[in-house]
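Customer escalation, tier 2.

The customer says the design service returned an amino acid string that "doesn't look like it belongs to this structure." They asked us to rerun it and document both sides in this ticket. The original structure tokens are below, unchanged.
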């Protein structure tokens, strides 16, 4: 009722103005809307970097600069900005890659390969995280344990990191399995271990592993070479004995969503592999704790073949 009343008042006003107007007066021109008001808003399109973490704020702070840098370089492909999306689990990351909500994700080779397989994604490049292109695992024991070699681990408990850790599970587990040892996962570090097996329990952190060994909760543990060689305090290192080092594997790799088209993928590869030669990318690389990205020297197929062989071995090791 209010709408009809307003229309009637408006029409009466128009007629009154027409009656008072001079016969020679020109009709009032309708203003044309400006280009700014008539043009449709440009649709936003983000290049999305993904990660798995329980500390989203830290991840976003570190990755946002490189997402912004890559987005700027991809403007010709319609990208208007960069975003960082943090998943709480591997299952969530699989879903985000599969449906294209995450374009590129970085991780160590074990979880990255599993996630790329489950999502249909593709491993494309190596990431030199912390300036390192490859790394390996160190199997160590406390000197107090009396263990002098990996053979001395039979009937003992080994502290490992987590089920999806490359350096904290896959590499040492494969090394020991290929040496002929039987590994059996335990629910806790105090669980019994039979004389013909090596038991292992997950401590879920390298510092926890170190403390388990130093405090005698387990006689031995595993970590990556950086932690053992540099990060462990000298006073702690003095109480340890190195038993073995595993083969090396890429420090981290990049996985892209199956939704990414071929032209964008090729452009992305070129942008990432040339970042270390671009002075304007230095801050973004530093924030991302990376010195460069490169392709696999032996080729992606050769690199993937060994990784998949190791994954097959781990699938036959009973987890807790």
């Amino acid at each position: 009722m209010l709408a009809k009343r307003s229309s009637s008042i408006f029409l009466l006003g128009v007629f009154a103005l027409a009656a008072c107007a001079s016969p020679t007066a020109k009709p009032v021109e309708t203003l044309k809307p400006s280009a700014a008001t008539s043009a449709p808003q440009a649709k936003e399109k983000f290049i999305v970097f993904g990660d798995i973490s329980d500390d989203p704020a830290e991840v976003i702070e570190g990755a946002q600069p490189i997402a912004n840098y890559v987005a700027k370089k991809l403007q010709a492909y319609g990208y208007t900005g960069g975003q960082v999306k943090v998943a709480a689990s591997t299952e969530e990351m699989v879903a985000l890659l599969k449906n294209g909500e995450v374009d590129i994700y970085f991780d160590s080779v074990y979880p990255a390969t599993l996630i790329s397989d489950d999502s249909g994604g593709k491993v494309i490049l190596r990431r030199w995280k912390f300036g390192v292109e490859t790394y390996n695992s160190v199997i160590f024991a406390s000197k107090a344990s009396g263990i002098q070699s990996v053979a001395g681990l039979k009937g003992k408990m080994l502290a490992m990191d987590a089920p999806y850790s490359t350096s904290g599970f896959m590499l040492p587990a494969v090394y020991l399995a290929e040496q002929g040892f039987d590994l059996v996962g335990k629910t806790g570090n105090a669980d019994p271990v039979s004389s013909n097996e090596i038991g292992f329990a997950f401590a879920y952190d390298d510092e926890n592993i170190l403390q388990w060994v130093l405090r005698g909760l387990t006689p031995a543990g595993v970590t990556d070479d950086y932690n053992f060689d540099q990060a462990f305090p000298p006073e702690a290192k003095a109480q340890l004995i190195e038993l073995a080092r595993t083969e090396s594997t890429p420090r981290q790799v990049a996985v892209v969503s199956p939704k990414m088209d071929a032209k964008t993928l090729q452009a992305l590869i070129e942008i990432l592999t040339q970042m270390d030669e671009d002075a304007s990318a230095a801050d973004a690389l530093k924030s991302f704790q990376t010195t460069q990205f490169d392709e696999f020297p032996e080729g992606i197929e050769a690199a993937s073949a060994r990784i998949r062989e190791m994954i097959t071995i781990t699938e036959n090791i009973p987890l807790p």
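Tier 2 assessment: The sequence is consistent with the input. The chain is about 40% helix and 20% strand. The chain has two domains: 46-132+252-297, 137-247. Sent an explanation to the customer and offered a walkthrough call.
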